[in-house]
């Protein structure tokens, strides 16, 4: 079994960081020249000045909601169906090259696929999960409109594997194909793999098991309990974190200690509702920059929560690791008929430099909403507590147009779970 996909995975971290920073100005130039949406967002930005993480953090975060809104407006006007984000198209749009496939994600949002081999960068994740050239893989992702199946399919072919395009549904037919062809590996959601295993066990109570012994799963949470359930049945399953826009962002290795970042991804973890990077280890929203010339993404907010892990993977892969999927960053909550957003909590923090971190807790019962801003003081901050709390209450009311209380806390009091708004109301 190959230890690594290529030498990039084991290069010194400083060398990787230097390469990413060197590539940033070129990416900004490319976006300004070939992506109408980013050209507007980056108007007046000198690409040569975007050569550090600090400079990158000053640029706007482009979130999925922005992508959806722009695509909808563009399509309504008869314009580019990709909303100006893609640098390629099937009608000769922008730079040379064309779209090979177009996918539809919920929204609907449409994503283009260019012609590069292993376009979604899946082969690296397959190798990390123990896949080898020459294996037969049963692909249990849907081939209908969404890109998941095609991501795995292209990665498998780049690795030199053959693929059974199983898709979803028709479980009995899929089990018959698995029994006849005896694939050694599976790609797809963990829940569908479990269905296949359980149905196979029910059909063969004497203990005849599936031929599948390894799996790369994605698209859903993959808790340790399900991982262990698979192991008990002889299947070593690993997960990768991918999105329809960015492709593979990070993947699990045999060390099972977090997920290792892909080599073409620059990661930031930011405070939800803002573009402000959080300290290493703190939970925040995953924001990625992807160096894909066909569909380049700069500071793309995934809406997912995670955190950076210290150190490097014991397998020798030297890239940054993250904890994996820890929930969603969009915690918008309706309070007394008004929507309150994480960005509004961030604005209250910005107005009071004595504060380090805050969480808006909504309590009470239906039709009796109460909100309390639990705010951590910065280490060493000195202030009149009563006066500061009163000032923060005023800011909270001004920003949200709602009245709330303020509870000042010592640094480190709030959980490190990425929550900015906690809905603790009772609905019984």
Descriptors:
428 residues; alpha/beta; GMP Synthetase, Chain A, domain 3; four-stranded mixed beta sheet; 25% strand; globular
Topology:
Elements lengths: L12 H22 L1 H6 L11 H4 L5 E2 H13 L24 E5 L3 E5 L9 H6 L7 E4 L8 H12 L2 E4 L5 H11 L3 E4 L1 H14 L10 E4 L6 H9 L3 E8 L3 E6 L6 E3 L3 E6 L13 E7 L6 E10 L1 E2 L11 E2 L10 E3 L2 E3 L1 H10 L3 E11 L2 E10 L7 H16 L4 E5 L11 E3 L5
Parallel strand pairs: 1-13, 4-5, 4-6, 6-7, 7-8, 18-21, 19-20
Antiparallel strand pairs: 2-3, 8-9, 9-10, 10-15, 11-12, 12-13, 14-15, 16-17, 18-19
Q: Assign a percent range to the helix content.
A: 25-40%
Unreliable sequence segments: 92-96
What is the CATH C-level name of the domain at 333-423? Alpha Beta
The assigned structural class equals alpha/beta
Report the span from N to C terminus.
55 Å
- In which order are the strands of the major sheet placed? 5-4-6-7-8-9-10-15-14
Describe what this molecule looks like in 3D.
With 428 residues, the chain is of the alpha/beta class. The chain has a domain of 91 residues: GMP Synthetase, Chain A, domain 3. The chain is 29% helix and 25% strand. The strands form 5 sheets. Strands 5-4-6-7-8-9-10-15-14 form a 9-stranded mixed β-sheet, sandwiched between helices. A hairpin with a 2-residue loop joins strand 18 and strand 19. Helix 7 packs across helix 8 and helix 10 crosses helix 11.
